[in-house]
UniProtKB/TrEMBL annotation:
Function: Part of the sulfo-TAL (or sulfo-SFT) pathway, a D-sulfoquinovose degradation pathway that produces sulfolactate (SL). Catalyzes the oxidation of 3-sulfolactaldehyde (SLA) to sulfolactate (SL).
Molecular-function GO term, any one: lactaldehyde dehydrogenase (NAD+) activity
Protein name: 3-sulfolactaldehyde dehydrogenase
Enzyme Commission no: 1.2.1.97
Length: 480
């Protein structure tokens, strides 16, 4: 591959910058070194933020048509280099080439939606005369950019989740500093290349690579940063909140997503949807199906079909179009999942299929009879493991679905509209998918959860609302 040890530079305020210290980017499939990226220092981060302060003024002054042109230009660049982007995603992350190709398509759509939403950042007139004594006043409110945004992104969607931060930030006239996941920085740097090619003014965007333990605090605590948008784990999110100070915070912190399958469901459709939802990207997916509650009358049939479909999954080379699932992001992560499954088995869980590890590969695993106090039942697995439970009825399924301290999305399969509406009303989550698994999202919808699943909502329009502030304007008219 031509990318081997080329040695990338980080993108700071429109300039490509190298560093004495570097970080090895490795392919989790065989642990080979793909490339090197700079290991930024605290001084690099502080300089980056000083430039971002200037960039905030530049971004705010960009007319909407210019923002739209730049964002569309970046989308065009990605479209033109679609195969290159997909290949890099499939090399540095856990995704197969088919999964990576889909992610590139989504990133293009994310940016195009961002460009269109830029023209819809509007306000409203206010009828001040609703209040006695205010008959002589007229006015309105409008939205203005918040300033400098810090974005911290994860490894599991190394391109599209970065686009979900950058697109709305630029659409709404902000400067943004992106700290991508240390293990998957190449896709984010490619995205910076796309925006640079599209003519984004210098200082508006930075993508700075480095270890979070070294530069993270400097980013999240800096007074110039007015908003932090973070996608990642609960523990890291809690640390950021404790250190950030008085800033806007938007966080998506994962889940332990439930799916309910009632006896009137299309079992074949439910199986296909849930298998994909459980094992997409080797289960390293915040929306991934983790717990499936199936009515007892169809449980054996569902379980049999689910296991049979899981065992047909092709595990292997990420660059092969035939592969359904590749490795986890590292052997360390695969060992973590292995330990979680082993703990469940020691407490009485039964492995129906899978449960084996080979390096960073962990086979798609289906468990049943899992005690409620196991970590795999209560926490986010973030790996290719799914739990099957028989339930008496929808009421029991709702209670069990709500029994964990997460609430991102949930799915329910049923043909009964009353049952569907009952689940919609009672499930304590940010989104309910009817006749679909929890693993469904379009980039235009509001996305986020409750409880430990996060704060605020993403999705382009809704991210823009988070990334702007409201200003009220009131005129007192003379002689009235």
């Amino acid at each position: 591959m031509t990318t081997h040890l080329k040695g990338q530079k980080m993108f700071i305020a429109g300039e490509w910058i190298s560093s004495e210290k570097t970080i090895e980017v490795r392919n989790p499939q065989d642990n080979t070194i793909i490339d090197l990226v700079p290991a930024a220092t605290v001084e690099d981060m502080l300089n980056c933020l000083e430039e971002a302060k200037k960039g905030a003024g530049i971004a705010a002054a960009m007319p909407v048509h210019q923002r739209m042109k730049v964002i569309h230009g970046a989308a065009d660049y990605i479209e033109e280099h679609h195969k290159k982007f997909a290949r890099i995603i499939a090399m540095e992350s856990s995704k197969t080439i088919r999964e990576a190709t889909k992610e590139v398509g989504r990133a293009i759509q994310t940016l195009r939606i961002s460009a269109e939403e830029a023209r819809r950042i509007t306000g409203e007139t206010i009828p001040f005369d609703q209040s006695p004594g205010s008959e002589s006043r007229i006015g309105y409110f409008y939205r203005f950019p918040i300033g400098v945004i810090a974005a911290i992104t994860p490894f599991n969607d190394p391109l599209n989740l970065v686009a979900h931060k950058i697109g709305p930030a630029i659409a709404s006239g902000n400067a943004i500093v992106v700290k991508p996941a240390t293990v998957t920085p190449l896709s984010a740097l490619l995205l910076a290349e796309a925006f640079s090619f599209a003519g984004l003014p210098a200082k508006v965007l930075s993508v700075i690579t480095g270890h979070g333990s070294e530069i993270g605090d400097a980013l999240v605590t800096h007074p110039a940063v007015r908003m932090i948008t973070f996608t990642g784990g609960l523990e890291a999110g809690e640390k950021i909140v404790s250190k950030a100070g008085l800033k806007k915070i938007s966080m998506e912190l994962g889940s332990n997503s439930p799916v309910i399958v009632l006896e009137d469901a299309d079992i074949e459709d439910a199986v296909e949807s849930c298998v994909s939802g459980a094992f997409w990207a080797a289960g390293q997916n915040c929306l991934g199906v983790q717990r499936i509650y199936v009515e007892k009358s169809i449980f054996k049939s569902f379980q049999s079909q689910f296991v049979e479909r899981t065992e047909k999954y092709i595990i292997g080379d990420k660059q092969s179009e035939l592969t359904d699932m590749g490795p986890m992001i590292s052997e360390k992560e695969a060992i973590r999942v292995e330990n979680l499954v082993d703990e469940a088995v020691e407490k009485g869980a039964v492995i129906l299929t899978g449960g084996e590890r080979n390096g960073a590969y962990y086979l798609p695993t289906v468990l049943t009879d899992v005690p409620k106090d196991c970590k795999v039942a209560q926490e986010e697995i973030f790996g290719p493991v799914v739990l099957l439970y028989p339930i008496a009825d929808l009421d029991e399924a709702i209670v069990l679905s709500n029994s964990v301290n997460y609430g991102l999305q949930a799915g329910i399969f049923t043909k009964n509209i009353d049952m569907a509406h009952k689940a919609i009303a009672k499930l304590d989550v940010g989104g309910v998918l009817v006749n679909d698994s929890s693993d469904y999202r379009i980039d235009a919808m509001p996305f986020g959860g409750v409880k430990n699943s996060g704060l605020g909502r993403e999705g382009i329009k809704f991210s823009i609302q988070e990334m702007t502030e409201t200003k009220v304007v009131c005129f007192k008219l003379p002689g009235q």
